[in-house]
Amino acid sequence: MEKILIFIKHHFSILWKLIEWGNGFLFMILFKYKMEKILPDVFNEFSVSPFSYRRLNSDDMIQLYDLIKSQPVPDLDFFHPHEFDLNSLQQQLRKNAFLMMGTFSENKLVGYFFLRFFLNKKCFVGRLIDVNYRGREIGRVMNNIMYETAWRMNFRCLSTISRHNTAVMWAHLKNTTMVILKELQNDYLLVEFIKNHEGNQ
Fold first, then answer.
1. CA–CA separation, 6 vs 198, rounded Å?
2. Mean pLDDT of the 127-149 span
3. How far apart, in whole angstroms, are the C-alpha atoms of residue 163 and residue 94?
4. Is the pLDDT of residue 125 over 70?
5. Helix or strand or coil: residue 120?
6. b/e string for 91-123 if b means 16 or more Cβ within 10 A?
7. How many domains does the chain have?
8. What value, to the nearest 5°, has the Cα angle with vertex 189 and ends 187 and 193?
9. SS (H, E, C) 52-117
10. Could you tell me if residue 201 is inside a domain?
11. Residue 199 falls inside a structural domain
């Protein structure tokens, strides 16, 4: 299923939009209430000062646009969950099955992370941290929030990682929740983050 969805996303944009609309509509009916109930507790438990972590709203989209635009171009080679123009970001925010979250230093957005939910009770995670704020444990907290939200909703938590994305591959070597599920096309891996999994360091 994941291979099919990834192929459709990258090759049939109109069909992908229809799938996203139907998925979002049914997610709103079946799962959104549970997500809204879980989120406050997750943010409260895993947010670590001096940074704050919360759900993004429409007032944050200009900051998100600026954050993405200001990152080194090579950093975006493997990060393309959606389009990055301001109008596309506003549209993405309105999608029921796509949860956009941010990391803030005071009132400045310095990190972006998300969960993309599917009706088969699987979700995909992704994150981007401002190049000037890396190495400060922001990624670890982002991971905790994404994983715990998925797990408490009883969703499987997945991601696709390029073998050529050396920074992410190196970071995940220390991630003991991660297991590799399968090889995908173009040197991508499908991985799952499993609660209480004891991985190899």
1. 28
2. 94
3. 32
4. yes
5. coil
6. ebbebbbbbbbbbbbeeebbbbbbbbbbeeebb
7. 1
8. 165
9. EEEECCHHHHHHHHHHHHCCCHHHHCCCCCCCCCHHHHHHHHCCCCEEEEEEEECCEEEEEEEEEE
10. no
11. no
At 117, which CATH number? Answer: 3.40.630.30
- For residue 68, being part of any structural domain is answered with yes
pLDDT in tens, 20-60: 899 999 999 999 999 999 999 999 999 989 999 999 999 99
Q: Cα separations (Å) of 9 from 17, 80, 156, 193?
A: 8, 11, 20, 22
Rounded distance, CA 29 to CA 24, Å? 9
For 175, the domain range is 2-193
200 inside domain: no
* Confidence at 68, pLDDT banded by 50, 70, 90: very high
HSE (side-chain half, CA atoms, 13 Å) at 165: 19
CA 96 centroid distance within chain: 14
Share of residues in the chain with pLDDT > 70 (%): 94
